[in-house]
Protein 1
Amino acid sequence: MKKILNLLPFMFLLISCSENKKGYHEEDEMFILLTDSISPDKKHRIVEYQFDHGAHGYSRVFWAIAPTSKEKVNLRDYNLPDGYKSKGWTIGNEAVLEKWEPYYYKEEEVLLKSGDQYKGVTLQLR
């Protein structure tokens, strides 16, 4: 019994930090919208968000490029690959991205370059 009690904090942490397999939705109770930037042509939006897992604000940040035409979008389907974050839009409706060094999922690195298309949006890397 004592071993089980000792494992409870670890089990709680594992459950609370586990990945949501259903998707990432703005309607989720723990969803925190950081920024929502609409493209100049109003066809896409960049959503910067995270989830409140009770870690005092220490939660990873996600960036998604999603269409504005859909309601209740699963942002997980539109997340930028790990290692890239959005810095906004150009006047020509290109998403401006910046490369950064993630500390997780490094084996899944994706190489993007200026001019690439992502979810129907042309990218500009800086």
Protein 2
Amino acid sequence: MLLDLRTAGRRYFAPRSHIDLLGPAPLPGARDARGRPLLVRDLGPLLDPLDHTVPGRRQALTVTLRRRSVALLVQRVESLAAHTGIQPLAPLLARRLRAPWVLGAVAVDDGPVLILDLRRIATDLALGATV
């Protein structure tokens, strides 16, 4: 099952299995279920520097890693049924990405939508990787 994620200016899909907790954006200084500080980042600007956050209510996609939990913030989340038309990115396109955070793409009515690897994004953020 894929989730339809909306940032301020973009649309992405992500496997529901990558997300351990889905809920409202956490308050500053929030901790995860194990009492560790929660790393919170806005997903839009991570993927596109021009995708700026707009004021309003946001949703948190929390990914629990071995040593840390990461909450990725988006404007809106919607459920989708299982999608069968997932296509891997061509090697030429994959090499041009700033980071290897895309699993593939799905063709929908208004064009292709990228499928994000939220576990990889969370791991890179937890390790302090800069993109």
Protein 3
Amino acid sequence: MNSLKISDNEYALIEHPGFANNKDAFFQTLGGVQSIQKACQTSFQNPKQALLELNLRPKDKYHHPVQARVQSRNDLLVTIKKMDNSVQNVSRIRQVFLFRDMADFQYSTQNSPFVQKLDSTLRVLDYNAINKFSIDLTPVQRKHVDMPPPPVFSQTSLPMSYNFLQNPLVGRVRLPNGKTTIVNLKGQCRVWIITTNMGVESVPTCRHSKLGEPSKTIQEVIEALKPLFEKRPVWTRRALLNHLDPSYTHYLKFALPYLSYLWTSGPFRDTYTRFGYDPRKDSNAAAYQALFFKLKLNGKHKGTKTHVFDGKTLFPTNRVYQVCDIVDPTIAPLLKDTQLRSECHRDTGWYRSGRYYKVRDLMREKLFALIEGEMPSEVAVNMILNAEEVEESDRYSNFDEQDNTDLNDTVRGLNTSATDDRINDLMRNLMKRSQEHEGFEDLEEIDDDYDDIFGD
């Protein structure tokens, strides 16, 4: 086996992106022979300081060159003769100049009078020519501004690696008619829950037409829900979870559309109601009305996930309370010992507005106190309990057309004595809170475990 001795000579390699048909022109694109020699010598001593630029238009002074990147190599340089395939002059390649950066945007100055004038005067370094150089200050339109290009247009030197790939969750399926279509194979199952509002004439009586047959697991949850809806036709999701086996938690939202519909407005908002049952036509449904509260809690508030309100303990995950689930000794009697309406109201349901808003103000006062880690103020509670129950027409006519200044004056009028500033402040806060409208879209984090009640 023949062996060759590697020479002690070391070389630098330049990977030029063009064809070297003309040797002189080839060297000019790299700045000339002297620039090449200087860059190669510097690469062996200090590679970071080696500068070699590629200029595809050497005669254009405004061309933006591409700088080479120097990399250390341990390659071999050989000379091969085609006649006899012999190998000679084996040497080492220690440094390589690579032009891998993207070329900058180029701007041609060939038709620029200002650049031509600049080159013929300042660049020749002639005193008389420089002395004659002047800039025309005549105003021109912006689109006709003639000026030299900037030294750099783009600061992006390397191309972006986008890695464009087809969505792995999307696939092509064949339809019954023979055509093909692209579908999301791993998409979230849609929950075909029927929703309704207080403006409809009749409530839904059966499930959605697009709802298919339930799976075995979903059917088990349905069978567990049937006796609950027979006993009580209107439920919140949290109340149902507390009456079901914990293993059914994930499947509840898929089982509810088979038995119930969802209210999106009115006094039964965000409650699931048994198909065919209309709480607007049954005064006994007053016990199933729901009260909503916007509570902004921090991470320190933790509690049992219950649907019952006792007025003493804060349960952060529950923001919706049904009347039948309120056991607070102060509030519960107000809901039981009251005269109901003859017809269901779109906002306050079967309760008269005066009693309804009094209960809501009491619950809000207690909830805000519990958030602060305190017990509700007896002064505030008694003030609400002793306040006159104003019907809705009188309640809003006094305040809707008044600003904050008029509100303060009204509070002072209600408290004729005006001797206790603390009581006045409490009344102002209570009235402001009572006038806050709690929209369905404003409820924040009604339930952390079940944000998507409708599905995608």
Protein 4
Amino acid sequence: MEKYDTVIVGAGPAGLRAARVLSEAGRDTLVLEKNRTIGQTICAGGLTVRDMDFVPKNIVDAEFNYMLLHTAKGSYDVDLGSHPVFTVDREKLGQWMAKEAQKAGTEIRTASRVGAVNGDHIIANDEKIGFDHIVGADGSNSIVRRSLDISVDKTVIGIQYISKTLRNDLEVYVDDFKNVLKYGWIFPHRGFTSIGVGGRTRKGALMRRSLDELCDKLSIEKTRFEAARINIDYKGFVFEDRFLAGDAAGIASGLTGEGIYQAILSGEEVAKVILDKDYTCPGIKHLLKIKNRQESILRIFGMNRYIPHIVFNNAVPFLLKKRSLCRMINDKYNLV
């Protein structure tokens, strides 16, 4: 039986960042990815300025210093100031992160599906592989998380079209969208556009209809449809010799849907814990502080269906006139 110091399940941003940090420290690290191509995942590809500590600008598709914010009461130009938003092709990001991990010494196997996680080994493509540590970086439907018997009780749904119709502006929609969702986006990329909607709802068909109507209204071609359920149910990330990172840990934002930064940072933090069991994880602690603040907003929104409508259509236009207050709120809640 082959054996590695650390086996990482999933070659997304969390798994690849963890692999790079571990390999740079000299640890024998294997990454197993179920898909044949790294980076083929459902994602709008939005990055904030926080991500740029980890992502080189030369792989970014576009940078936006302002956005168009649409509410039921009107549209607003929002100056993002020192918090620009970027877009990146997820496959391009994945390929770059994989190369960096491999340069550090990581072994990556694609088309390698993990079927079971046992006490000291996994079964991948009917092959037994041993480990001292295992990292579940395998997304919202994580087999590593299931092996720990940790349920997923809170999720958000994101649906999008990858469209051939090119757009120039970063646009965000906030409204109740027929009481189904709270957030919509148009993210321009190099050669395509992501247009999507997301929120906590069980009314997937109505959400799809809302997205179709938005595309038709804006004459955006519905080229390729994608949908994903995102785990936001964080219940820990260290379980003796087993670890969870990124969406497997449920660390994504339920308020904004942001997940790439959380994935990369949590992957790095997991690697540091493996290298030093006394590491105190300041990065994860900060992420969780912000996540808890954001979820307090979601709880308020959930009290009454009219609350988000009032906030989006009355409070938001007022706040946009108060730049210092907007900065303070963004610093507290990490909205962009």
